[in-house]
Amino acid sequence: MSKVETFRRLHHGRTPDRPLVLPGPWDAASARALEEAGFPALATPSAGVAASLGYEDGATPADEMFAAVARIVRAVDVPVSADIEDGYGLAPKELVERLLEAGAVGCNLEDSTGGVLQDPHEHADRLAQVRYAAGDSLFVNARIDTFIRGVADPERAIERAALYVAAGADCIYPIGAPTSVLPLLRSGIEGPVNVFATVGEGPSPTELGELGATRVTFGPGLQRRATAALREITAELK
Questions:
Q1: For 33, 36, 126, 149, which has the most beta carbons within 10 A of its beta carbon?
Q2: What is the DSSP letter of 86?
Q3: In what order do the strands lie in the sheet with 42-43?
Q4: Whether the Cβ atoms of residue 128 and residue 168 lie closer than 8 Å to each other
Q5: CA 43 to CA 225: how far, in whole Å?
Q6: DSSP letter assigned to residue 147
Q7: Strand partners, 81
Q8: For 179, which DSSP code?
Q9: Per-residue pLDDT tens for 79-115?
Q10: Cα distance between residue 144 and residue 62, in whole Å
Q11: Could you tell me the pTM of the whole model?
């Protein structure tokens, strides 16, 4: 079985108390540590990778992001999905080629650019082009940014989700959705749902699964916790 087939299967047949937990490595060393901890797959966070490369979130050049993903993929044997923000303005065919060249089995694609929500129909068209170019070789996680862009009505997220699923998205990621609306989103969205969790705070992955999460990711949370731990360690060196 290929890595992408393994990754896709990990999203299906899950019980509410056992969502797929995908921690986010930011470099090769963190990826190895997470693999050794027993996680069956990993999902890179763009903000965490950006910090490791010395960039602000959203400012990483495409070449450096794909190179970082490739280093992470080379370091582990488990499937790795890549957060590639809004796709860096690349044409769908080139975007798919670069993801496959890096060895990624999947990707996150956001539906906002520069803090502005994209037209959902236009974004759905782009997702359809990505799906056509990729065939079954990539697992596409369509991130919905309505909640983090000030649109609190869950119906708007559900409407976008329907368009994205119809376009071929494998999973829907309503980032920033309040936990109170997760059951509504779960009932209104077809297929797997990705939910963001805060490391060490808020509901646990199991609790999020019971609210409707199929898979749980942490964004740059692990990288930021590791950096905070390093600051504490350096205090002992003075």
A1: 126
A2: T
A3: 42-43, 80-83, 106-110, 139-144, 171-174
A4: yes
A5: 17
A6: G
A7: 43, 106
A8: G
A9: 999 999 999 999 999 999 999 999 999 999 999 999 9
A10: 21
A11: 0.96
